[in-house]
C-alpha cells in the first residue's frame, strides 16, 4: 500500500514526465508520437520511480523502450527543471513497457471467439406457480 506522499509524488511525476516527453524532448522519437505514461510507482523513500510506458502505436515497442532507457539521464534532467521547486530530490527513473492494453485486446478476442449457449428457461418452483400464492413465511415474534 502506497502512502499519500508516494501517491502525490507519483501523480506529479506522471503529469510532468508526460509534458517532458511531449513538449521538451520530442526529438527523442524522431517526430513520431511520444509514449504515454500509464503508471508511476514510487519507492517509500521517493528515491526511485518505476515508470510504465504505453507504447501503443507502432510495432517497434522494444526499440522505442530502449531509446527511452538510453535517454533516461536527459529525461531526468528535463524533469528536474520542471519539478525543482516542488520536490527536494528528483528520483532515479526506471522505464518499463506497459502491455496491459495489448493484453486487454487479446483477451477481448479470446472472449469473442467463445460460443456460450443461451441459458435454459427456468422451471417454476413447486409452490409458486402463476396462479398460486407464495408459501407463508415463518413468524418469528408473536405480534407479527
Automatic annotation (TrEMBL):
<dbReference type="GO" id="GO:0030490">
    <property type="term" value="P:maturation of SSU-rRNA"/>
</dbReference>
<dbReference type="GO" id="GO:0005829">
    <property type="term" value="C:cytosol"/>
</dbReference>
<dbReference type="Pfam" id="PF02033">
    <property type="entry name" value="RBFA"/>
</dbReference>
<dbReference type="InterPro" id="IPR015946">
    <property type="entry name" value="KH_dom-like_a/b"/>
</dbReference>
<dbReference type="GO" id="GO:0043024">
    <property type="term" value="F:ribosomal small subunit binding"/>
</dbReference>
<keyword id="KW-0963">Cytoplasm</keyword>
<dbReference type="InterPro" id="IPR000238">
    <property type="entry name" value="RbfA"/>
</dbReference>
<feature type="compositionally biased region" description="Low complexity">
    <location>
        <begin position="124"/>
        <end position="134"/>
    </location>
</feature>
<protein>
    <recommendedName>
        <fullName>Ribosome-binding factor A</fullName>
    </recommendedName>
</protein>
<comment type="function">
    <text>One of several proteins that assist in the late maturation steps of the functional core of the 30S ribosomal subunit. Associates with free 30S ribosomal subunits (but not with 30S subunits that are part of 70S ribosomes or polysomes). Required for efficient processing of 16S rRNA. May interact with the 5'-terminal helix region of 16S rRNA.</text>
</comment>
<comment type="similarity">
    <text>Belongs to the RbfA family.</text>
</comment>
<feature type="region of interest" description="Disordered">
    <location>
        <begin position="116"/>
        <end position="144"/>
    </location>
</feature>
<dbReference type="InterPro" id="IPR023799">
    <property type="entry name" value="RbfA_dom_sf"/>
</dbReference>
<comment type="subunit">
    <text>Monomer. Binds 30S ribosomal subunits, but not 50S ribosomal subunits or 70S ribosomes.</text>
</comment>
<keyword id="KW-0690">Ribosome biogenesis</keyword>
